[in-house]
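To whoever is covering the structure queue this week,

Two jobs came back overnight. Logging them here so there's a record in the thread.

Job A:
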Amino acid sequence: MSADPRTIAIDLATQNLLAKAPLAMELGRKFAAAGHTLALVGGPVRDAILGRLGNDLDFTTSARPDATKKILNNWADAIWDTGAQFGTIAAKFGELTVEITTYRSEVYDANSRKPDVDFGDSIEGDLKRRDFTINAMALELTTPEPLFIDLFDGINDLVKKIIRTPGAATDSFSDDPLRMMRAARFAAQLNFTLDSEVTDAIILMQDRISIISAERVRDEFTKLIMSDNPRIGLTVLVETGLAAKVLPELPQLKLEIDEHHHHKDVYEHTLTVLEQAIALEDRLGGPNLTIRLAALLHDIGKPKTRAHIAGGGVSFHHHEVVGSRMTKERLRALRFSNEIVKDVALLVFLHLRFHGYASGEWTDSAVRRYVRDAEDLLTHLHILTRADCTTRNKRKADALAATYDSLEVRIAELMEEEELGKIRPDLDGMAIMEILGISPSPKVGKAYQYLLDLRMERGPLGTDAATAELLSWWEVNGPKK
């Protein structure tokens, strides 16, 4: 006879919690001594059962924020009460971070971006307001023995790998529309599928995401794309219509046929590029938001640049230029940092650069410009360019890979010979002004750029040759006599 899933769940959760964070039991004892209840709740319970408990623990309690803070005083390494108005006190214990929140309920009205928060009196009410059943389980720690609480059959949904809401999905998404994106994110993170009621509710209520701030949408989308399998979550967003509200450029790619006819559409090609970029991102030290966004957005300029070719087929000339501009607009709308916006847009702009030399005819000048234009994103560009080859023709794919291998070798050789990452003209601004006898002015910048172009084209010139070139340039571009 097989063991009861609940028995297995409480055993796993308790064992993993004790092993990872024995402090949790001490917290339970302190809250019990003060006359309050305390339970591990939400994601940490789910992750404890799955054996993936991290260093961030969430608790729910009958204690009000002031009482929680009093219990933690003179014990925690640090305490933050910035979330006290929402019932949350955070604390740090070594490498462990805890958030302890008073039982609560929160509801959005039809036009609000912020929830109305009411404190509750029972854990049952608190769990009922949770987003999904797999996050609505709790481990009560102020009882004589840890008590597993699962009012909505979350453990069975965990076993079945299903995303389901505790109550009606429409009610849940009405209370907090961001939960629609969170459903896609959990599907991607856990490799789960959405319950049909959840899918139907997202399709019905997709417009309600508009009341959520761009920052919250960005944070949820970032968690999704940084998951182990973002394709699953992105597919949910597109198929439910939610992507059309938060990242409309993505579903629009489904309308375009890849110019090489290797793929059903550019959308499928894009998801494959993303997956292939993820497979290569160890070169960047692990999961990397910049390369994932660049892979996802690299072809978003295609719908606006599509043109029919006489005799059949389509072209997307300059889609990298249009796509770079669109990338800036979308990432700014989602409130990504200026650095992310700049870097991702640059990668989108450069993603076709290699194909101008795909036959392998790379001059030293072309290599220098390739490195110079990539700035600090050369490894990112290597990854994006390689990932962008999704042809099913093995011979062609192998040829492209071999050509790019040779390019990387040539870059490494020139890096060693010329320090390509630090390319500068042979004369700096001060030397230019001294040789030409001029003061700081736009002319100095133009002269500097001229010498930089020479350096890129011909390699190191040396001071004497650079001076001669500068004087020749000045004869033509200096003050007219």
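Job B:
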Amino acid sequence: MNTTVDAKEGESILDVAVANDIPLQHACGGFCACTTCHVIVKDGDKFLSAPEEDEEERLDRATGVTLKSRLGCQAKIMGDVTVEIQNEGFGH
């Protein structure tokens, strides 16, 4: 979408997407119970909270995962971050 939005420190990628009408699926409501909010971090991964075990386990079961994959509901923003939204091909 090539969209730039502002985020408050500590907000999740999903929170920011929803607040700015950016389509980021979240079938489980943002509770780390699916992978529909999967994003790929293109830049600024050092400005995201570290992934916790629940997120890593969930991503282990997803398809299309890269070393830069995160769940939007779990990744908290601490600075400038660029992500690519992966809305197709990811299930629960």
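Note for Job B: The CA atoms of residues 2 and 84 lie 9 Å apart.

Please reply-all if you pick these up so we don't duplicate work.
Q.
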